[in-house]
Amino acid sequence: MLCVLVLAAGEPWEAPALADLEAHPGLVVLKRCVDVDDLVASVTSGQADVAVVALDAPGLDPSAVSHLRRHAVRPVAVTGARSDDLDVREHAHRLGVAAVVGGGELASLPEVVASVEEVLDTRPRQPDLEPLPAAPAGPGGRQAGPGGRVVAVWGPAGAPGRTTVATNLAGELARRRVPVVLADLDPYGGAVAQQLGILDEVSGLLSAARLAGAGHLADRFPSTCRGVGEHLAVVTGLPRADRWREVRPAHVEQLLEAARGLGEVVLDTGFSLEEDAADLGGRPARNSLTLGALEQADEVVVVGGAAPVGLTRLARGLVDLRDRVDGTPVRVVVNRMRSSIGWSEKDIAGMVEGFSRVAGLHFLPDDPALVDRSLVAGRPVVDLGESSLARSLAALADAVFPASAEASHGRAHARPTVRRSLRGGRR
Ligand SMILES: Nc1ncnc2c1ncn2[C@@H]1O[C@H](COP(=O)(O)OP(=O)(O)OP(=O)(O)O)[C@@H](O)[C@H]1O
Ligand SMILES: [Mg+2]
After folding, report:
1. pLDDT band at 337 (very low <50, low <70, confident <90, very high)
2. Are residues 174 and 298 in the same domain?
3. Is any atom of ligand 1 closer than 6 Å to the C-beta of 163?
4. Is residue 264 domain-resident?
5. Pairing between strand 232-235 and 2-7?
6. What is the band of 202 on the pLDDT scale with cuts at 50, 70, 90?
7. 161 touches ligand 1 (CB under 6 Å)
8. Residue 285: band (very low, low, confident or very high) from pLDDT cuts 50, 70, 90
9. Chain centroid to CA 218: how far?
10. Which range of residues forms the domain containing residue 41?
11. Which ligand approaches the C-alpha of residue 160 most closely?
12. How far is 299 from 296, CA to CA, in rounded Å?
């Protein structure tokens, strides 16, 4: 389903065009925009795929068209004149619009909209990256390929804190000046961008999927990342939960391969491990995003809630996970630990060990005020100064990325620090 914005600027073709677009299977008109400002604001929601614009709309200029392209919205211009008219062609070319529907051709508009060429991200390609040295294999884990380690943060249903842990693990590495890619692979809708205060941007995951589909991801992966500070590159997640259909397992594989080349990799995933059947149209199964991340991870961090329901789900989740990640180290984080729940860390350790052999067990204290402050500021907890939660998160980062602990304690510099590609990030 393609979502279409229309800016007709009062031209007489609006009513018949709207009727034709709405009648076309596979197209849905998202909004009629009143002017260019309205169009520009509407594309930032990340929901539109195509914009049908009056070629002569007041204020339509090359920068407005490039704003559309930056948000992966393909422009189609409509004009009352003939589309092969020299002036019309020059005007469209100057604006950067390739698809033009002229007077007398309006009936073809839905077809043009449905088939208008996919616009790949046209932001300038970022500088090439030096390959990272091979990472050591984790304890009991398989030998990692060249570059950073891939760590998937997973956890059962009930919002135990997967995104919070993933964001802070990556944030802590960045604070240590270690290059890191944080990718939001939750097929139930992205939340990393919001936690890090990244607003109004094109989805990095959908851009990466498009580039992977076109065979360009290996070359252009940095263009799908949003730089946050100098060391953190974020691949933002799905802008709407139903857009998981656009990301295939092969795209995730390519994304992870490219991300490893840039630094350490932290993945936020969804909760479900169910293998839902791929549909007959050959589309991917929804949970293949999560399952692909787990399969390709060098280590899995499992987050569970400390309260009774959270612990029950964690126990079940550890059993379910065992079949999925045979041989990959699994580390458990019990989040939102507090004295009022009535059991000690030792009690919980006994329970976890009964269900699974884990590489490590960590506890994060419950600190709603601090976490709220972090959400409001759009910054990880680890960037907000000293706290018990920040110390526990730093200890988790020490365990998951031991090389970064050495770097942070001044014993060695395990990796080159700032990467030019991340420095180019736009905040
Ligand atoms: N240690 C903590 N102390 C207090 N609040 C926390 C803590 N960790 C997470 N939270 C809060 O719990 C809620 C869920 O966290 P988060 O979004 O990270 O979970 P999730 O597992 O990613 O959930 P979802 O299923 O929505 O993806 C958020 O409101 C978050 O602020
Ligand atoms: Mg989440």
Report:
1. very high
2. yes
3. yes
4. yes
5. unpaired
6. confident
7. yes
8. confident
9. 17
10. 2-115
11. 1
12. 9
